[in-house]
Structures are given as C-alpha cells and as structure tokens.
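Good morning C.,

I know you're traveling, so I'll keep this short. The sequence:
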Amino acid sequence: MSEILKVIKERRSTRAFKPAQVPLETVQQITEAATWAPSGRSTQNWHFTVIHSAEKCLELAKAVAKADNRGPDYNFYGAPTHIIVSCPRDSEHAFLDGGAAMQNILLMAHALGVGSCWINQVRVVCNVPEIRAMLHGYGVPDDHDVIGSVALGYIAKETPAKPRHEGLVTIVE
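The tokens, ready to paste straight into the viewer:
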C-alpha cells in the first residue's frame, strides 16, 4: 500500500486533545501542506489563520457556542491550536479550494503525529457580528468567509475507526 493511502486510511478525527501545545514549527509544516492544495483556476486565494493559543481557541469556541446555541461545554474538544481556512466571499471556487486545503491540513497533521478535527461551526456563524469582530482581531480578512477550520493538538484519546460504506465507486469503461 502506498504511504499516502496508508495515511488516508489511518487518519481519524480527534475528539479529545491533550493541553500540551504543538510546536509552532510543526504547525507551520501543516499550513505549508495546505498551501500546496489544488485550486480552481490556480487562484490560491485562501487565507490560513493560525490561532496558536489554547486560551484564544477556548475564547473562540465559547463565542461560537453562544452564537450557535451549542451550550457551555462546547470547546473544540480542548484543542490548543486552531487553523481557520477562509476565502473571499465572492470566490467561485471557495468551498472546493478550501475543502482541498482542509484535507491537506488533516492529512499532514496525521503524518506528523498531530491529532485534528474538522470544525464547521465557525463557518456557520462567521458573519455574526461578535464572531466577525473576533475573526477580524485574529487576522481573518474582512472580505473572507470561513470555509472551515481545524482543531489541532496531541491526541488524548484515540477515536475508533467507523465502518466504511461499500458501493461508492462506479467504473465505466
């Protein structure tokens, strides 16, 4: 089996993170992988905002929880690092480009021994005024919408593999 397929098959969403911070050099490797994702028409107009502070990650999680009625325990699974992927809101390929970048983040994190979890809730509430103000303060461009975000950290508890569905591929010759 190829190394890439092995990483794809082994990766799991992390639902419990250790409080220890991932070194910034490791996070930079993960974001570099994101910049190599394919992009529609080679626009590469995404922006990656790294929150490398457990306190600020929790601050964002609590604000998102309030805006999205998630309850007081919502905390991005305790991840000490968060990467927000955003694209210009008028970008035709924003979700495709952002999704490809997100996948590279998840796979590179796994390859480096870092747990990750795709977080959609920031995208859902990114234009709520209180959330937009926080995002602005973290460096997300004002003309961008959040495509998704990734919680990163060391794995506190392994997530078991879920069963895969058969019959998802059709081959026509």
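Safe travels,
E.
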